[in-house]
């Protein structure tokens, strides 16, 4: 049987997918309307059916277009509605959830964010992180300094310079 409370309070990425499916406006709770509309669209009328949809929702993360939509949704979902940017702690947590297991450079990028002076991440920066993670090789060999894909200050940080481009991951 599905422990709904445990599922809803877990840091599992499937909860973000569920929130996206429900078109939830705010992190931390679902309105009754969001829940009913989302459960109807998922064809779930009980917790057992929701349990049966969890693997399906996780599998949607493997589709690049759907993942990009979920990633973009996550920015507005996680930010305080009276702010235009994400506070850095929330941004780091959401990035860890979304990219932590799949982007080889994420540990270095996360450490860069930990040491940076930035207090917030705006939507353009948020979008650029995904684009950077998808298009730039782990050894940074295809990075174009003049290209549109930028992660402000990341490539000039001491973390990148500490071991050189070819030994980047040994910085940790």
Report what the structure shows.
It holds the Pfam family Cullin_binding. One of its GO terms (molecular function) is cullin family protein binding. It is found in: Cytoplasm, Cytoskeleton, Spindle; Nucleus. Keywords: Cytoplasm, Cytoskeleton, Nucleus, Phosphoprotein, Signal. Residues 1-19 form the signal peptide. This protein has helices spanning 4-8, 13-22, 32-41, 47-59, 64-78, 88-99, 106-115, 123-135, 158-161, and strands spanning 86-87, 120-121. By secondary structure, the protein is mostly helical. The protein has two domains: 4-62, EF-hand (Recoverin, domain 1, Orthogonal Bundle), CATH 1.10.238.10; 85-171, Orthogonal Bundle (Recoverin, domain 1), CATH 1.10.238.200. Helix 2 packs across helix 4 (47-59), helix 5 packs antiparallel against helix 8 (123-135) and helix 6 (88-99) packs antiparallel against helix 7. The chain is globular and about 50 Å long.
């Amino acid at each position: 049987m599905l422990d709904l409370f445990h599922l809803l309070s877990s840091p599992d990425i499937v909860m973000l997918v569920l929130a996206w499916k429900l078109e939830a406006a705010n992190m931390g709770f679902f309105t009754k309307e969001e829940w009913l509309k989302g459960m109807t669209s998922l064809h779930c009328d009980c917790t057992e059916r929701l349990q049966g949809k969890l693997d399906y929702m996780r599998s949607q993360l493997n589709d690049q277009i759907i993942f990009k939509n979920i990633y973009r949704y996550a920015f507005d979902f996680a930010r305080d509605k009276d702010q235009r940017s994400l506070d850095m702690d929330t941004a780091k947590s959401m990035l860890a959830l979304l990219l932590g297991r799949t982007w080889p450079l994420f540990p270095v990028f996360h450490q860069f964010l930990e040491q940076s002076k930035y207090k917030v991440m705006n939507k353009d920066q948020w979008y650029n992180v995904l684009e950077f993670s998808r298009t730039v090789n782990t050894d940074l060999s295809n990075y174009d300094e003049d290209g549109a894909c930028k992660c402000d200050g990341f490539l000039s940080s001491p973390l990148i310079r500490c071991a050189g481009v070819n030994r980047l991951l040994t910085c940790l």
